[in-house]
Amino acid sequence: MHISKADFVESNTDYKKCPPPFIPEYAFIGRSNVGKSSLINMLCLRNGLAKTSSTPGKTQLINHFKINDAWFLVDLPGYGYAKTARHQREKWNRMIQDYILNRENLMNVFLLIDSRIPPQQKDNDFIIWLGENGIAFSIVFTKTDQLTKLKLETSIRTYQQTLQREWKQLPPFFITSSDKKTGRDELLNYIEECNKNFVQ
Ligand code: GTP
Ligand code: MG
Question: Is residue 84 in contact with ligand 1, taking CB distance under 6 Å?
Answer without folding.
Answer: no
